[in-house]
Amino acid sequence: MQRARRRVTLPDKRVSEEAFKMNELKAKPIYLDYQATTPTDPRVVDAMLPYFTEKFGNPHSRNHSFGWEAEDAVDVARGQVAKIIGASAKEIIFTSGATESNNLALKGVMKFYGKKKPHMITVVTEHKCVLDSARHLEQEGYKVTYLGVKDNGLIDLEELKAAITDETALVSVMGVNNEIGVIQPLKEIGEICRERKVFFHTDCAQAVGKIDLDVDDMKIDLMSISGHKIYGPKGIGALYVRRRPRVRVIAQITGGGQERGMRSGTLATPLIVGLGKACDILSNEMAEENARITELRDYTLQRFRDRLEDIYVNGDEHERVSGNLNISFAYVEGESLLMDIKNIAVSSGSACTSASLEPSYVLRALGVDEELAHTSLRIGIGRYTTKEELDQAVESICVAVERLREMSPLWEMAQEGIDIKSIEWAEH
Amino acid sequence: MAYSEKLIDHYENPRNVGSMDKNETSVGTGLVGAPACGDVMKLQIKVTPEGIIEDAKFKTFGCGSAIASSSLITEWVKGKSLDEAGSIANSQIAQELALPPVKIHCSILAEDAIKAAISDYKTKNGAADVDAAE
């Protein structure tokens, strides 16, 4: 990897040509999709390894040292996870990931409190696993309000206040959006919920390690955490469940009654150790890491703006995490752009990249014009991203955008001063 | 998504990208699709007085399959009569490029585009004249 990076450090005027050639030569791919997943930090892997082999005990085995050893490791990890969100270790429930955590939070809370309070509130831009859990609850007779978002991707707090009724048991609002990286006002939402005695759940899969989180200060009652979004292993996550005032949930997975009865199943000690270590690293390095990533993000955006016109950042430009750059490159369809930059791993909000052939529901919820939603790329910058990689990515993307715009009838019309909205398109 | 080599070749080296003067009487222009749907195709043909397509150009906003489909059809229509060009079916394009099922609409769009271009040319020149020339 080091060698590949060094090769692209070239005098400025040659970068263009060389970067393009690198692409042609199927250079080592550049990973800029840190919202999809992150590589496991080698320090995390090191911490995990002994728990696969010599320290393989079942943490629930109470009568021998193998079990105690594993249990101790799980306890340490529980503390590490709790620390990063200002919780106590007893409030952390390990799950298989944020999807399970979100399922447990929504279904678990609604099924416990739903007889008296059958209503919950969530947001249209939530992750699919929250929205789908809400849909399932609706099918079972619970009532769900889906709040819209403003054009910057943030919810309107007045709308939230108005939506809460005496029947509302739960409000679920994500901390950071996975597509556009905007940060919801968690503290203000927490205040509102506490005042109205409604539980506040937040999906923080994309927020942990990116923003400061404190469950007491923000009055959060439940929080979902993912391992693989924070340089930990896949297949592990956690749900924070507040003890005072106590939040009760109905278990969605039953069995031996582990995790205080909220989630049965033998704990995955190596994965838990990994999640703990990932949190521990963030506790120490988060501020520094985010400062570095912010600098890279701003630099990247500036380079795009210097080179290309008609590009738009999706989601609030300030209330967003450092590693997310979601940009619409007007007049260029996202999937064709991805095809052109195949050595750069990014995501697109284009319909053609989704199984449903619908453009991103998040971008549409923001009121982004559908034609612009088709032209978006999400560039994710993370722990291992280098400036050289971003230089190369910017160059490749710009070359591709310029090529595809030359091929785009919409770009041609825009150059001729024709407003594409004035044309009567035959929708198909 | 795994695409065929032919498709990738047309995407990476698209044939006949460009524009012609749409006001010229020998030029027929078809503009189909919609930006909101994620694909727009502009296909233009230049027709000889004998009714033969001597040149074709395209510009496409859309996915790789849409670009490849338009590139392919511009290649195919060159040298053909209007009737021959108008009888190209989307299934032929889909087959040639081995389009995956979710991309069949790209080939339909290409078929629509050539038909629209032929129709525009005929309207401009008076359908009767064209029939006589054929």
UniProtKB/TrEMBL annotation, chain B:
| InterPro entries documented for this protein | ISCU, NIF_FeS_clus_asmbl_NifU_N
Superkingdom to which the source organism belongs? Bacteria
Ranges for domain NIF system FeS cluster assembly NifU N-terminal come to 2-126
- What this chain does, per the record? A scaffold on which IscS assembles Fe-S clusters. It is likely that Fe-S cluster coordination is flexible as the role of this complex is to build and then hand off Fe-S clusters.
Q: Which family does it belong to?
A: Belongs to the NifU family.
Q: Which named protein is this?
A: Iron-sulfur cluster assembly scaffold protein IscU
Task: List the source organism.
Answer: Thalassospira indica
